[in-house]
Amino acid sequence: MTKDGYRAPQVCNIVGITYRQLDYWARTGLLRPSLQRAQGSGSQRLYSFGDIVQLRVVKRLLDAGMSLKKIRQAMDLLRDQLSSDAPLADVTLLSDGTTIYAAHSADEVVDVFRRGQGVFGIAVGPVQQEMEGEIHRLFPEPTTPDKLAPATMEA
Question: At 25, is the secondary structure helix, strand, or coil?
């Protein structure tokens, strides 16, 4: 790393991709270096830490079987959808191999390819806990003789 960023060979080692992949992705606009673009022979691209994170996400999506075409579409759409105060690092990406979903929070998951169409999701664990509490509230444990308070005897 230079004081100004990461050079291409360093990025390739960190992300686990070839120089050819990195060069192709930069030339085709999948992810251009944000600090310095190549400007002719002898110039070096400089990537920021955020660039490296995005490149690793692309690599993981490729490793998971997503096509580069779909990854490219998803990254473009995510960049369009996210505001400057909601960086890509705040998003969790999920995929079923066909589409990519972006989870912005536990309550908001959207289909990236359908331009933000909401996806319905339920975390089962919290529902189970909620139901256990509700059932206990509605149907308290039956009172058994050993749980009764001693009765007072009147003469």
Answer: helix
List the structure tokens of 34: 């944000």
Tell me the C-alpha distance between 142 and 121, whole Å.
Answer: 36
Helix (H) or strand (E) segment spanning residue 148? none
Q: Phi, psi (5° rounding) for residue 2?
A: -90, 170
pTM: 0.64
Q: What is the CATH number of domain 1-63?
A: 1.10.1660.10
Q: Copy the structure tokens of residue 6.
A: 């990461």
Q: What is the CA radius of gyration of the chain?
A: 27
The model's pLDDT over 115-148, given as tens digits with 9 standing for 90+, comes to: 655 555 556 677 677 777 777 778 777 655 565 5
Length of the chain counted residue by residue: 155
